[in-house]
């Protein structure tokens, strides 16, 4: 099995829909650090699991400098965003979404709980 990861940053705005009082229900922004983990049993024709540039472009083209409430019909929490990113990239099995320093959400596809990297 081959494994790769790609780490990059995006800037975004959102407001959360919560069932308790929170300042996060007001529009605010973050500079997120996202790490995408991908794997394949065999390499593609180019000798890659997937192209690093395409990983960043798939995510950044939708999320970077955007108001996520205008894009998604789900509550744009770090947890939901990690899951959404994971399903945008076929080879992806895990996403770490650091919304701010010390606040990280991780989504791992079923069956990959013990994967490397």
From TrEMBL:
It is an enzyme of class 4 (lyase). InterPro entries: 6-PTP_synth/QueD, 6-PTP_synth/QueD_sf. Its cofactor is Zn(2+). Binds 1 zinc ion per subunit. It comes from the Bacteria. It catalyses: 7,8-dihydroneopterin 3'-triphosphate + H2O = 6-carboxy-5,6,7,8-tetrahydropterin + triphosphate + acetaldehyde + 2 H(+). The keyword Cell membrane does not apply. The keyword Acetylation does not apply. The active site is at residues 24, 65, 99. Keywords: Lyase, Metal-binding, Queuosine biosynthesis, Zinc. Belongs to the PTPS family. QueD subfamily. This is 6-carboxy-5,6,7,8-tetrahydropterin synthase.
């Amino acid at each position: 099995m081959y494994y790769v990861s790609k780490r990059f940053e995006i800037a975004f705005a959102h407001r959360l829909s919560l069932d308790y009082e929170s300042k996060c229900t007001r529009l605010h922004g973050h500079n997120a650090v996202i790490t995408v983990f991908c794997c394949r049993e065999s390499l593609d024709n180019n000798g890659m699991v997937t192209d690093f540039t395409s990983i960043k472009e798939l995510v950044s083209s939708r999320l970077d400098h955007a108001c996520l409430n205008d894009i998604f019909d789900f509550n744009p929490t770090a947890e939901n965003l990690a899951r959404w990113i994971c399903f945008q990239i076929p080879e992806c099995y895990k996403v770490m979404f650091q919304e701010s320093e010390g606040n990280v959400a991780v989504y791992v596809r079923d069956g990959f709980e013990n994967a490397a990297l």
